[in-house]
Amino acid sequence: MKKFWDSHYMDTDFEDTPSRSASPVSPKKHSGVVPQILALIAVCIVLALIFGTAAAFATKKAQFAAGLRRADPKPSATANAKNASYMDLGRLRLQTADENVVLILEPWFPYQQNDTDFIEEISSKKRAIKIAITSYFRTHTKQQLLSAGENTVKSDLLGEINGMLISGKFSAIYFSEYLFLN
Questions:
Q1: Mean of all residue pLDDT scores within the chain
Q2: Tag placement on the chain: N or C end, fewer CB within 10 Å?
């Protein structure tokens, strides 16, 4: 074993060994058509995105935040000495006429605070109000509801609910949540 070590490693002097190549290695310059084609493709993609976006806004087919709904006022914003908010229905999970589309809805109604007969009536008809809301959304598809618009949906629901009430009427209906889940 000693002979093998001595013959292979002891004779080599690492400090005095000159470098194997006298000229420094220069990096290979990329020349050719491939990098130019890739750069041209990247520039074309960027220009297509810029001009496509500009054309969409110029033709008014695209609207900023078009899919977002405008938030209704909070119940606390309408409450004062005369008015209160009826929020006892809570958050409703409603099935639409579509097979796999569910609507999350949290309706509330402003009413006159001093009308005790009306307060008793809406408390006793809470279940009927929920059934009216549920049946309304069960008979409409998501597309029908979106194309009709939220204001039309609100006026339809308000008409149905006020039709059940005798001692008073709600002046408006608001949605804290109005969210479709697919």
A1: 82
A2: N
Q: Looking at the whole model, is its pTM more than 0.85?
A: no
Strand partners, 86: 109
Closest Cα to residue 93, out of 123, 132, 129, 134?
134
pLDDT at 83 over 80: yes
User: Alpha-carbon distance 180 to 105, whole Å?
Assistant: 9
pLDDT in tens, 98-154: 989 999 999 999 888 888 899 999 999 999 999 999 999 999 999 999 999 899 999
CATH among 3.40.50.300, 3.30.479.30, 3.30.470.20, 3.40.50.2000 for 75-181: 3.30.479.30
Distance (Å) of CA 97 to CA 135, 142, 179: 10, 8, 15
- State the CB neighbour count (10 A cutoff) for residue 31: 8
One-letter amino acid of 15:
E
Residues 6 or more apart whose Cβ sits within 8 Å of residue 110: 75, 78, 79, 83, 84, 85, 86, 170, 171, 172, 174
Q: How far apart are CA 12 and CA 15, in angstroms?
A: 9
91 pLDDT above the threshold of 70 = yes
